[in-house]
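User: Please predict the structure of the protein below. I'd like the answer in structure-token form so I can feed it into my own downstream comparison script.

Assistant: Understood. Taking the following sequence of 292 residues as input:
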Amino acid sequence: MPASTPLQAALWMLGAIVSFTAMAIAGRAISSELDTFELMLYRSLIGICIVLIAARLFGTLGSIQMRDLKTHALRNVAHFTGQNCWFAAITMIPLAQVVALEFTSPIWVALLAPFVLNEKLTRLRILVAVLGFIGILIAARPDISNIEPGIALAALAAVGFAGSALFTKLLTRSHSITNILFWLTVMQSVFGLVMAGWDGDIFWPSVVIWPWVVLVAFAGLCAHFCLTTALTLAPAAVVMPMDFARLPVIAVIGALAYSEALDPWVILGAVIIFSANYLNIAAETRRKSPVR
């Protein structure tokens, strides 16, 4: 691997961190008018336009196919659920706490992989899950008798993102990124329409809110594109720890923009969650590296 590749990966991860952060800020601004289902509906409709325009420009329209729609559906139900929980959580609890709990997603991937990808559940993965759970308890410090809805939603969002990641891995074995993103936006437009319109009342965003809605759509696609690109330039053990920089960034923004306290327990819990993730990633990287 060229010496400059990790630096390039870091620059792409910087783009991912900026995009994820922008999406959180925009999501909070939109919550004053739209519920999460309406937000997902408009975000997905804009996403369809972005994907089709990009596919046209790069000549990948022909890769859109109708194979494995069941797997696409499972992937998008998981992602739709996780994303709705995430957008709801960022309006209920401090942003840093949401991000800290979101970092448990790779741990859920390790636990669920045996059921979706037929991968072995090793003692290391069990240890990683235990450490991650300890990190959750420290970061969230839930009152067992009265768990905050925001904490529960952030934790559920991590599970949803894990399911999305697992089914995405299945799809990438035989489908292009264009095809995966196309069905993501199309299916989630349908899900959003059904869930937002079940009561017969879908709110049309005001002129003030529309720029934030567009920002969410662009930021979401940009974040995942930057992350995927970074992973093609450097090993996961190098790339994924960079995402941890998102926690202090979002914590500072939360303090400055929303007067949220910088909670040291959230940082400590996130460090433990991050350490568990890094332990798993490093072990998997060593296991898959060829013997020289």
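That's the full token string. DSSP finds twelve helices and no strands in the chain.
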